[in-house]
Structures are given as C-alpha cells and as structure tokens.
Write a structure and sequence with these properties.
single chain, 103 residues, alpha+beta, Nuclear Transport Factor 2, Chain: A, elongated, disordered N terminus, disordered C terminus
Length: 103
Amino acid sequence: MKTVFLFLVMVASTFNQAKADSDYDPERLQQLINSKQLIPLEQLLDRHRELLSGRVVDVELEREHKRWIYEIKVLKENGKRREFYFDGTTGALLKGDHEEYHH
C-alpha cells in the first residue's frame, strides 16, 4: 500500500511539473478519467503489477500524436533500470525498454 501511495505522490508532482498546459490541470485529468479517455494510474499499476515489480522511480504522462502515454521507470531488484510505455486510455503495454511496440 505504501508503494501505491508513493506512485500517486510522484504522479501528482509529475502532473504539476510536466507542463503549464491545461491538459495537466487536475480537474481536466479527472474529467478525462471520468469520461474513460484516461485510465487511472492506480488501475494501470494494478494491471501490470508483475511487470512493474521493483521500485517505481518516475512516472510521466504525456500527450503524443493525440494519444495519452504513461511512461513508467522502474528500478529492478537486480539494479537495472527499465522503462515502460503504456497507452493512457487502454492501459496496454506499448513498449518496454528497447522492445518493439506491442498492439
């Protein structure tokens, strides 16, 4: 539970620092979640718990090519850092490290 709280704190700070753009306004993000245009981070983390095992060190939410993308960086137990990209609407894994996109 402590880990999920840490994720939420990191995401909140990422949203606040990412851009001074209206897309990152907390009220706007909540509207996107309510309208199913954006999957909540906690739901994404639950869905991919095994893949994201380790310590999440950074979470970013970006708008690319009219699509929301979560970028999540994880420090694995073996000390390796991994990066994962997820579709912000569906929660589908798009890319992990240097792997090809999955659809």
